[in-house]
Amino acid sequence: METSFALTGKGYVIVAADTTAARSIVKMQIDQDKIKELSPHLLMAYSGEPGDTVQFAEYVERNIRLYQIRNLYPLRPAAAASWIRRSLAESLRSRNPYSVNLLLGGYDTSSHTPNLYWIDHWGTVVEVPFAAHGYGSYFALSLLDRYHDPEASLEEGLAALKRCIDEVSKRLVVDPGKYKVKVVDKDGIREVEI
What we know:
By secondary structure, the chain is an alpha+beta fold. The chain has helices spanning 50-71, 77-92, 137-147, 154-171, and strands at residues 3-9, 12-18, 21-23, 26-29, 35-39, 42-48, 100-108, 113-119, 125-127, 130-134, 179-185, 188-192. The chain is globular.
């Protein structure tokens, strides 16, 4: 019952993910952070099989950090999305593929633009203005389609995200509970309350 949302606006990307770790009908943890900070201007929300998600997210985080150490500059969001897609595609052709769905949000400091990438477990990558994964996406995508504005201020973006969270809480059989929300913009990554 994992749910994650993301949307872009005027100079920012908002990424939100529920904080529940569950297996079957049992909640095992209610404060899990499913958003990994990959670099000062790049973050990734992940969902899928519990073991795969944590292992793949840490693998991506360490390799992007290693790239920055070796080259003295961080990967831009488009390059990071391509590298992640390639890693997922390679794992598909192995005996142990990762079952991970990702939302990669970042702020490109060289072009001063926000970028959001929807990546699924098949290694498909699409740059999108808004995205969602999980059961909540059935309700959130129609709301984001209607209320998303690419020129919206941060407050308006958070209001659209709040609509999605409220709709999922109201309509989904099992309420995911709390959400962790992070914003990435020219100033870096920060967590916000919603």
